[in-house]
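Sanity check

After download, print the first record. It should look like this:
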Amino acid sequence: MKTLVTVLTLAVALTLGPAVQAHNFRGENELSGGLGGQVGMHDSPGGGLFAAEYGYRLSQITWLNLELDMAFGGGRDCFVDRAGFVTCDRFGGEALDLIAGAKWKFVTRNEHLVPYLKVGGGLAFLFFPGPDNDAIAPIVRVGGGLKYFVLPNLGVGGEMSAAFGPGIYSCGPGCSTGDLYAAWNIMGGVEFNF
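Expected structure tokens:
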């Protein structure tokens, strides 16, 4: 928690300080990739995380953001509870998220540092062990991060995000139920601008 507060304080200080020069992006497109982890909350899948992202510049700070995330659980710790519903630990199951939204990249005093916020919506496809245990959830994702551009068109950094929405879970043949889908993501990655 202390690290999160430090990172957020640094991002706010860099954003609100007097800007010397904004980062000069080399093109209108960007590709990003990241590796990290997803913690599923409320019986949602979690585990390792791979993310791929495409961005298109719409204005000085606004970018269209399209994202594909794949979470792969390290275990298969799922069981059927007394009510007949499948319950998994926070590192079980797999997920595939398709997200579209916006990203805002802010100006800082150091042109190499680019903090950003992003908001999007889409679908999460959830896969649990065993037959008739899958789910789908319309989700909203909010997050932010910081990239450091080591070259004019290549940045490295990290981000944190949270996704949540109503999930439609299968609970066996011919059975479905509604429940909350929620997950917390943290990852590091690279960004290429062209």
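If your output differs, re-run the checksum step. Summary of this record's structure: The mean pLDDT is 84.
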